[in-house]
């Protein structure tokens, strides 16, 4: 290693404050065998509370620390298996699900996990009514009735009642979501302050039973996990996982090549090929049910015009970005259901056509074009995409002023509907098509103080008729008919919505070749560290 490169690596590690429980001094040798060190951009984490987690990085964290009632097989998502639940039955009328809770599970605190903890976790999420609560409230659960509808009848039996009949797989897939993470009710209740359900405590602490225990979180800096040696499924092979927020892909690559980190998560396409020739590094590709899109806030009277919305869809150079910025990181995909989901539409009707976009703007009353601000997460590839869109849109008569910020700032602004345009990612919450239909094609209440706040609400898109169609699709029990209903919904959203959906993500991970056992699933909350080991 030449002197300059050594200094760069040392400076990068020093600025990151990387340490292994000792002094924060640069380490220029391989990482300890009992520690997995990961470089990742996780500035989008807002909270570590499973009742509130609603960002991709937070969801991945939750999957390591909290067990869930049930999960799906990452290699075959049609297969659902019990985690906290040992087994379950569905009543003849299809509205009551009864789960037998596995015996012998203990929380990190040493408290036994019982059906009461599962019931409390669901009740807590519904009563707090944070972002992911809709996954449960869509079954008719309210703060007033949830204690009766979700209850423990004994320490090993949980009853979950829905308001009407749904496809059983839809209910079960919803219960694989982050919001079903089981919290230690005794611990959380002891940390309540002014009736907050322990939310202040769980924002920066953990109360789970999973294979890892939270040790430290510093926003946009460090996430430190320690192995749960008493995990009921078997102790992890590594003693700890250290995740550093390393914003620059070039720095991630440098640290990976020197062995100062074991995994790099945010490399650019041009960095992959040189690494493929390095026998100490492997490149792993994991197709995700995650979409890159930008939304146009319909509170803005200019962006609310149908022809303006459509003009944006012709102002994006999809193929150009696919061949450069997104080469290997994603494929062009314009419908709201990712490939692999029931009813997913594989039609991409929009191509880059600046002349057509200009004509649409003229028809809308803006022959001289428009100007809009776009919020964007200051990470790769989001910033690269935003700059490419800025360039292609300029030729279409749309001037875009970019407002880069860290993920936490961007998503907080988005949730308050204070943006004009915003570029972001959306990951499926569960493996049923309603997960995306309910956020891109439904908005039951467009008021600022609405209880449900899907992406349609965030962009103030008021769609009562489309909302009814989405509700009807989730009740259809015939799979073929249901798939056709979702295809119709996708076509309508493609035609009329304020969403410009561009790509379906492929996560590309670079690992040191001595790392084994990491699982990269179809969603970020199905990325698992539990079985990782280092040769």
From TrEMBL:
Residues 1-29 form the signal peptide. InterPro entries: Peptide/Ni-bd, SBP_5, SBP_5_CS, SBP_5_dom. It is found in: Periplasm. Keywords: Signal. PROSITE patterns: SBP_BACTERIAL_5. Residues 79-446 form the Solute-binding protein family domain. Belongs to the bacterial solute-binding protein 5 family. This is ABC transporter substrate-binding protein. It comes from Azospirillum isscasi. The lineage of its organism: Bacteria, Pseudomonadati, Pseudomonadota, Alphaproteobacteria, Rhodospirillales.
